[in-house]
Design goal:
Helix content is about 65%, strand content about 0%. The two termini are about 40 Å apart. The relative contact order is 0.15.
Amino acid sequence: MSQIEHSGDDDIAVTERTPLVGDVETPTSSWKPGHSRSSTLASITNASITTTIPYKPSAVIIIFYTITFITSTAGAFQQIPMTRIFEDILCHEYYDKAASLDEPIDEILCKNDTIQSKLAYIFAILESANAIVSCIVALFWSIVADRIGRKPVFASSSIGMTLNLVIIMVFGWFPNVLSIQLVWLASLAHICGGAPAMSACIYSILSDIVPESNRSITFMRIHVTSLVGNLISPALASAMMPSTGPWPVMLLTLILWIIGTAMIAFVPETFHSGQPSNTDAESPSVTFKARAMQGLGQLIDSLSIIWIRSVALVLSICLLSLPVLMCTFQFMVQFISMRYRIPLEKTGYIQSLYGLAHIVVVLLIVPYVSSLVVRPTIPSWLRIADDKRRDLVLVRWSYAAYVAGTFILGISPSLPVFVAGLTVMSLGSGSASFIKSIATFHVDPAHRSRLFTLMALTEVASNIWSTPALAGLFTLGMRLGGGWIGLPYLGVSLSCLAMLVLALFVRVPANGNGDEESTESSAESVRSR
């Protein structure tokens, strides 16, 4: 889905230069202890921007840091045990040992190409189905958020994510009763609001309460908070599973999701309708057709921002971005275990090493480089004129690091080389925050929440094709044999190269240079069409 310190004094300015800071058998008794195994578009009016906020923004941000930490920890906890549970189910099916489901099969016997290919496709289709359902309902929930507020939609989305996990656990617990392929039905839980709605609510609420000058630093800190959760949980899962098995870890994941959802009760509602009471929208004489046409007009106005060239390029980059994320989570767990023949329960330590490198880059390297390249004392060939151009240059450097890192992952003959590739890849860690910051330069405050929704929808839509593509390349690589097993990461490297090429054509708003876009003129030309 980090530095969580935030000044308690609301009048302290935070600028963009502020530093950010072998064979392992799982015991039968530990497998199932005590049991036998038988804004977004929601902010179309964006009236909240001008609303006086009756609470301390710093307190709300700390609550968000906490929720983000808990839910990201839960998400990373889930990956390793879920992979082991479903791998074992497929392993029993492959060896026709359904009658002995109470005992897990030795994991080394499950590294069969057929089993691993089926496992990859099950998770790929599950992720794609999650993305499809989330995208379908995103507009509905955006309308609800625009009518009744962001907090209820945020809570509903988190409940949907929790319910999704519950359904997955049910199908993993009763494989002798429920077909494993039916786990795809868990995607229906996202009808309550999936990742796009949840992400849009988070960024919309933060945009409501954080001044424009502080926004990018807040986004970066939220991102790092998520990284801290992703750093801790894989290592803890790896430490727990040898003695507890996968199910207690899954139960802990569920508890964390429940706690994170409950904490939304402490989030204040930041959306307050500023419409006059005598508006046509509130008049009982307005027909349904008039309301529908008004909503359509607002939607068209919201989508008009995609005609700004750099915004369209940023959205295209978002459409290609998810493979970078997916290849370092659940897919990497399965890939490392299969390629280097190590138990799944040991892969969490490698994930944590990547998370640690990620955090070092975001907290130390990115802030230092960000401040260094704008200093007037450095050589002119290295100096960047202003903060806007700085973000654009750094996001290009980040994508170049992704290209190099994922290429190393694809060709790595050994685990140490793979870890070295992850280290290189971590140098691109600031890209998500930089690209969001660049996108906001091109739209006025009244359209930024809509921009975040479009970006979230595009990123989730990326999941529709990226996870099946990874699974397909993984299967093809195993079929070709040898070094071709790294084909998924070579595919990700190509997608990173495409992002880098697109980023070369992105511009920042004009500051007197004729070759750069003027946000105001671009938006005005769209409205005049």
